[in-house]
Amino acid sequence: MRELLWQIQELNKKQESWEVQGYVDVSDQYGDLSVGGKCYPYLGDDRYLLEQKEPMNVAITVGNPLLRKKIAEKLMQNPQLQFPNLILAETYICPDAILGQGTIISMDCRISTNVRIGDFAFLNMASVVCHDGTLGDYVTLSPDVRLAGNVTIGNESELGMGTRVIQGITIGSGVVTGAGSVVVRDLSNHCKAVGVPARVRTS
Predict the structure, then answer these.
(1) What's the domain range around 12?
(2) Which whole number is the average pLDDT over 35-50?
(3) The pairing of beta strand 86-87 with beta strand 104-105
(4) Which of 23, 90, 113, 124 is most deeply packed, by most CB within 10 A?
(5) Dihedral angle at the C-alpha atoms of 68, 1, 57, 31, nearest 10 degrees?
(6) Is it true that the peptide bond before 197 is cis, omega within 30 degrees of 0?
(7) In this model, does residue 46 exceed pLDDT 80?
(8) Distance CA 141, CA 135 (A)
(9) Structural contact between residues 181 and 166, judged by C-beta atoms closer than 8 angstroms
(10) 197 inside domain
(11) Of all helices (H) and strands (E), which one includes residue 200?
């Protein structure tokens, strides 16, 4: 959360885009957050958002795909809540890329031509999606993930930091890759793969 708040600050230096009212969490254990010399107040738990009577923009900053999905499905019960895409500073996105709602594209990301990204995806800093890529709903790309052209990632998959995926690979839904993995073969649903080249862990 703090990192995204800092990225919003950097974006606003170039172009005033978002005014952050504060943050919501299951508890107030962190109190007010101080980031880059600014203080962001704790607003309350999920009930604060579920009880909103006026339109409000919300960003779900949780990295875990399944938890992000659980939160999104809960908050979407309130029709006043809107989930715009959060596109941060120093990001390049081809105009023909198609993004679903609630997607976060962190600074230094690159999204090439004919890319489709589903709802509530989270692309962390310096991730790259090359031409003709498809990312499903609730996909998480950790920092410095690189996807070559024509790669498909299924819903709720999470690629660890620095993962590399060669061209034309299909990764199923609910897949997790370890940090630094190099994926050179298709991965089926709900598996964990690690290593160079990445191999499915059976235990």
Answers:
(1) 2-82
(2) 94
(3) parallel
(4) 124
(5) 110
(6) yes
(7) yes
(8) 10
(9) no
(10) no
(11) strand 199-200
Using an 8 Å Cβ cutoff, are 107 and 10 in contact? yes
In a domain, 203, yes or no: no
Inter-residue contact 127 to 146 (CB < 8 Å) = yes
* Residue 146 placed within a domain: no
Burial of 173 (0-12, 13-18, 19+ CB in 10 A): middle
- How many CB atoms lie under 10 A from the CB of residue 89? 17
The two three-digit tokens of residue 2, written as one number: 């703090």
Question: Is residue 63 in some structural domain?
Answer: yes
Q: Please tell me the total count of domains within the chain.
A: 1
Please state, in angstroms and rounded to a whole number, the distance separating the CA atoms of residues 88 and 126. Answer: 11
Question: pTM to 2 decimals?
Answer: 0.94
Per-residue CA distances from 48 to 51, 81, 162, 184, 201 (Å): 6, 11, 36, 45, 41
- Dump pLDDT digits (tens) for 138-179: 999 999 999 999 999 999 999 999 999 999 999 999 999 999
Cα(145)–Cα(113) distance, integer angstroms: 17
